[in-house]
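Re: folding output
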Amino acid sequence: MSQKTSIKQWIALGAMGLGVFMGLLDVTVVNVALPTMVRDFSTTFTDLQWVLNAYTLVYAVTLMIMSKLGDMYGRKKIFLGSLILFVLASAVNGMASSLLILDIGRGVQAIGGAGMMSLSMALVASNFKGKDRGLALGILGSVIGVSSASGPLIGGYLVEHFSWPAIFYVNVPFGILAVILTVIYVQETPSYGENQKVDLLGMLLSAAGLFAIIYGLIVKEGHTHWDWADLRVSGWLIGGTIVLLLFMVVEAKIKDPMVNLKLFKKPHFIGVVIVAFTLGAGFYAYNTFLTALMQNYIGYSATETGLRQLTISVWSLVLGPVVGILSARYSKKWMISISMLIGALGFWLMARAISPTVSFVDLWPGMVGMGIANGMVNPLLNTAGMEGIQANEMGMASGLLNVFRQLGTTVGVVGLGLMQDNQYETYLNGHLASINMPSPALSGLKKALIDAGPFSGHNIAFSNRLSHAPFAHDFQQIVIKAYDNGMVTVAVSAAIIAVIGGVAAALLLQHNPKSADITIKEEN
């Protein structure tokens, strides 16, 4: 490999990494802008929820479709088209004059984000060879880890200094730069779909099934007191499951399926997607609750919260390239397994640190454990996910990996949130009766706290009106301890999820410590 070619490849990696960073950042960056949007659009948080949900839904639904199109017609073409679509949608979102336009723009933006995310890993694997491939995938894993954790910091800074449209406008110049670099430096992959028919039925069924399941989870997240058996929740979940089962039946029978189900006959690949799912359900989902703890209860601003969360994300920058090199020499199986257990220890330390007087000083040791695990597992997972995959299916393998990671995040946010709500409500029911105040007023306050949920209960307890009441201190302490009970449960549950991921890695991943390259079986 010549020095000139090598430089071009690293610039190509920069272009793909920039696309991935923007696509994943926009999953979380909007959170900190919601209060400003509420004022500017004169609306409620409930109405604004679809600014978040539109991106999450469309992103998850289109990941596999964009992966398949890239495998069939050239990954660079689809990646580049996705990047351009993302930039255009970002500009429209920044100029949006109504919530409807913003919601539609977010959905279109998510299609671009899905295309960039799903094809970047396969493009990196095909643009690099030998030991450099492991290093490049490690760097890409670093980008994934950093982008997922840096939303509060970047979003907070932009909103505080430029208002909410800036979180979309910032994508335009960086996106244009990524487009130019992609056109010049990224090498195209073969078009494997020249003699194939597009599996339209498979694409439709996969999109419908994933949409129904994720939408059902979103409905449950927004209505925590609805029972799982409620048809407004279970109808979506059961319907989505049936559609995905039908999808698998169709894929097993047609000549050119969207997804080669034989991938799931390999224990190694099953292990990879389980780790991806637990990474989303444990680590990425927990970030939502950690951000609420630091902003709503400790009282840090969005920017202050983001700066402190660098304790987690900085490890991805430090460890990603190092892990990429080490993965060529040592067993990815055990590196992933041990890293997940380090993450579990981090969550356990977080659970131990939670108290009514908790501060960053108490939290940082656990955050370091989470950061080390995330910084190790993400790049290792990228490399392990590409092992033994045929060249014509690398995009789909990458897409599946990202689908399970995103699905895990959604399931984790809902599941951990329900556990937190249950512990929060149980503590309130058991301790509010000790407050010396009239029963009707106490019942009204309890209902208000439960309806508001753990995230917003602090605002009620510390409102100006209640803060001057004679029972204020005792009341506020009960609300804080109720929240703490829920947060301890969330942290312990995340630790258990991380342990499951570590055990799955130890039992299912291949042990290949001497492999210096990724095996890619080219088709004739």
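--- second protein (sequence, then structure) ---
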Amino acid sequence: MNPVTEYSTVPSLLQNIIHHIHPDSAVFMTHKVGEVWEDITYKQALEKINAISAYFLDMGIKKNDRLALILDNGPDYVYYDQALQQIGAVNTSIYPTLSETEIEYILNDSGAKTLLIGSPFLLKKILKIANSCTELIRIIPIFDDYQKYTEKAKFNAGIISFSALITEGKQVLNAYLSTINSCRESILTSDVSTLIYTSGTTGTPKGVMLTHYNLTQNVRASLDQITVITKEDVFLSFLPLSHVFERTATYHVCLATGSKIAFAQSLELLAKNMAEIKPTVVSCVPRLLERIHDRAMKSGQASGGIKTKLFLWSLEKGRKFRVLKEAGKNPGLILSAENKLADKLVFSKIKEKTGGKLKFMLSGGGALPKNVGEFFGDLGIKVLEGFGLTETSPVMSVTEYDRQVYGTVGRIIPRIEVAIQNIDTQKIYTIQTHDTFKPDFESEEGEIITRGHCVMKGYWNKPEETRNVIDADGWFHTGDIGRFYKGNLQITDRLKNMLVNSFGKNVYPTPVENTYLKSPKIEQIFLIGDKREYVTAFIIPSKEILQETFGLNEAYFEQPDVFIEDKRIVDWMNEDVKKLSNELAKFERIKNFKVKRNPFSMEAGEITPTLKAKRKVIEKKYAEAIDQLYLQEIDMV
């Protein structure tokens, strides 16, 4: 039975666990300290959470005050978040990768009173802007030796280490216990739980107000859709909790079900941590799955001879077995035996690298290429896809555990409506819900709009911008283009990404880019062609493969030239581009490209923290290079 009710709040989820799901001696979280994984029980966590709440109350924090945090995933995030949630304050999470200017804007726009800081590097950023943040009254580094970074600094806000804050909170806890309980009970589901600032691909970041109702009902609906999650599951968390996807799909789901959260050390150590923790569920982004796919394909074919033949034979048997099973057909004794052998000889070795106990992986934050999803299905690793935005809490749809349609983002979750609307005429083609699902239903293409419990309260201090995206009938306009296919939602692209060539043809970059990303040579690709006669691109090669193929050292990638002009490398890249172009309509095919030496980066302001390209920034920054692309075509087709 789903433990989340219509009246749940974020702090009530944790209270429900210790009263109805686990004893407080059970393991809540685990993280690595040195070389050892250290477990944290619910009791240990609650002691710190209550102490932090007491400290906040003692310093005068009130309901609806905004308390900010800028740090990577870990138990400290949970302590701080739960402490402020249970006294009715508002979590204002800031991406650690943002610039000082962006951080300053968010702190001032939200009026944040406190800021938890996760590293010396981040503290140095904050010291430069702290006195410009007029509402900030307390700076809280999570490390104790912060003084060596602040001894020459003078700022208006007080400063205290997180451990000292907890110690002081414990000293006054008895005086505030009853107040904490009454604060928790007085929280309304309509109260704002968090402010999450949009990544700002098109302008100034906007603070998305998500209520306790938004967040808990999103979890409730997701658990109604994916019913296989239990209190015995182990989630490995590595995506940023400052983003709503990881906060809902891992943190809040674990708060609702009593599943254990294990915090990965870093993305670089993720593979090692998976082998150690043996998680049953991992939330991830498509790019991670693409990299696993690329490396597995490369490794499986590297030796040549019998090993390569065995690898390809296994994939073929896995594909045939999967297709029949997903169609509800019996694979038969021979194919079942062949697939079992393929699993023993090939697939099991890949699964071992994930810990060997995965129930499923959940992919979100972007489109997963269809061939990558199918690859994991062939291996017998289930990948569920979800779709949504920060403004929708975030989940609008997610793949059902027992019904996979690759290339889609699943069935609409319970108790919301999703419609497809004509971009030009505003005519609504269809309105679909969880209950109207039909496995053979297909619709026309248009903008995806939604209404229901998932839709945000609005943008903080921006009523006009709120009215621009939530219409008079309550529909939130996502700005995404899509349709329904086999009853599931299918995303085509972002409306703002759409390129309209000089002949009036609409080109959606994402599916075109995904076609070219099938090449293991390509790490990133950025399509160009709005109001132009044809499509061109910037292509960033796989550094590893480029180095191996041409014997390049690190110095090659540190050269000042942004683009690689070496004809050998351009021709080498053109081999795959030319081949993959045959899968596209003629007006979608790349007619020219430049090979960019290094990836687009957050540091250069070219991509957002959620790895979305800032189209206007890139087009302005590389305007001269773009013009050159239209002076002469490469022999592509």
